């Protein structure tokens, strides 16, 4: 029974790794939309494997390391190669450097996270060594996720797929694709930054005070149902901007004091 409990989160991590590999295969076969959806599925699996491990009390150093190897492939290597095949190859050596920097930043981000998780680093910020409820630096899954969500929107624009979309976003998709090198460079810097990003599983939405967020949650779910591709991109973008907004607001308040 104990072996089965420890196996559950590892199976999710294996699924994450498998979809990362599938994304790479799709990219090499010029099936860019399928490659993007594979990464998004890997994001979903990555978001639940840690929660399963905590709920079943089956966290382990092996699980931390295994999860990071899978994340580097699914959210670092797969999106970088996908963007290189689609856009970055047009920039020659610069495109290669951008893709490589994205992977290196993701690897650095994961290594730093592992040191903190295993207690072997001085990077802990919370006093008394208590577990903090935020990430330091942009999670690699969010960095890879926003890139592949943008690819899905770009494929819809190029193939003129008829679906419910938000015109304001779709109109700016070609422009966002033209600045992909800059976008990937910014995402790389955010991954290795000290900017805080919320851990969603620490939000405790079931507390009585949290029910005031219920209309917002229902509204988001309805928007996802109505505009699935657009909302995936908006959710990733909102998450990335939330960390930047909190950082500038905190800096402003500290300077004011």
Can you lay out the helices and strands and say which pair or pack?
Elements: H1 2-28, H2 32-55, H3 61-86, H4 93-117, E1 134-136, H5 140-159, H6 167-178, H7 180-191, E2 196-198, H8 214-226, H9 228-256
Antiparallel strand pairs: 1-2
List keywords for this structure.
257 residues, mainly alpha, Four Helix Bundle (Hemerythrin (Met), subunit A), two-stranded antiparallel ribbon, 9 helices
Domain unit count = 1
| Category from helices, strands and their pairing | mainly alpha
Unreliable runs: 120-131
CATH architecture: Up-down Bundle
Helix content: over 70%
Number of strands: 2
CATH superfamily: CDP-alcohol phosphotransferase transmembrane (TM) domain
CATH class: Mainly Alpha
What is the end-to-end distance? 55 Å
Biggest sheet: strands, sense, closure?
2 strands, antiparallel
Strand order of the largest sheet: 1-2
Pattern of helices and strands:
HHHHEHHHEHH
CATH topology: Four Helix Bundle (Hemerythrin (Met), subunit A)
Which radius of gyration do the C-alpha atoms yield? Answer: 19 Å
- What percent of residues are in strands? under 5%
Short description:
This protein is an all-alpha fold and 257 residues long.
Overview of the structural elements:
- With 257 residues, the chain is mainly α.
- The protein has a single domain, classed as CDP-alcohol phosphotransferase transmembrane (TM) domain (Four Helix Bundle (Hemerythrin (Met), subunit A), Up-down Bundle), CATH 1.20.120.
- The protein is 73% helix and 2% strand.
- It is built from nine helices and two strands.
- It starts with a helix and ends with a helix.
- The model is unreliable at 120-131 (pLDDT under 50).
């Amino acid at each position: 029974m104990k072996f089965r409990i420890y196996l559950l989160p590892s199976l999710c991590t294996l699924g994450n790794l498998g979809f990362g590999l599938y994304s790479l295969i799709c990219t090499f076969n010029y099936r860019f939309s399928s490659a993007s959806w594979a990464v998004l599925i890997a994001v979903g699996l990555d978001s639940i494997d840690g929660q399963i491990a905590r709920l079943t009390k089956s966290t382990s150093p092996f699980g931390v390391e295994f999860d990071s190897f899978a994340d580097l492939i699914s959210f670092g290597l797969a999106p970088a190669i996908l963007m290189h095949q689609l856009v970055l190859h047009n920039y020659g050596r610069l495109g290669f450097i951008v893709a490589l920097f994205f992977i290196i930043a993701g690897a650095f981000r994961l290594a730093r996270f592992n040191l903190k998780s295993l207690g072997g680093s001085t990077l802990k910020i919370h006093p008394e060594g208590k577990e903090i409820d935020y990430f330091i630096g942009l999670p690699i899954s969010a960095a890879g996720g926003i890139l592949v969500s943008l690819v899905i929107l770009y494929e819809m624009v190029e193939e003129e797929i008829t679906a419910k979309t938000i015109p304001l976003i779709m109109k700016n998709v070609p422009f966002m694709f033209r600045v992909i090198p800059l976008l990937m460079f910014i995402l790389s810097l955010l991954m290795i930054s000290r900017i805080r990003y919320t851990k969603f599983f620490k939000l405790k939405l079931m507390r009585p005070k949290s029910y005031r967020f219920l209309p917002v949650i229902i509204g988001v779910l309805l928007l996802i149902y109505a505009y699935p591709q657009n909302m995936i991109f908006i959710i990733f973008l909102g998450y990335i901007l939330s960390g930047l907004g909190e950082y500038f607001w905190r800096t402003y308040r500290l300077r004011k004091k």
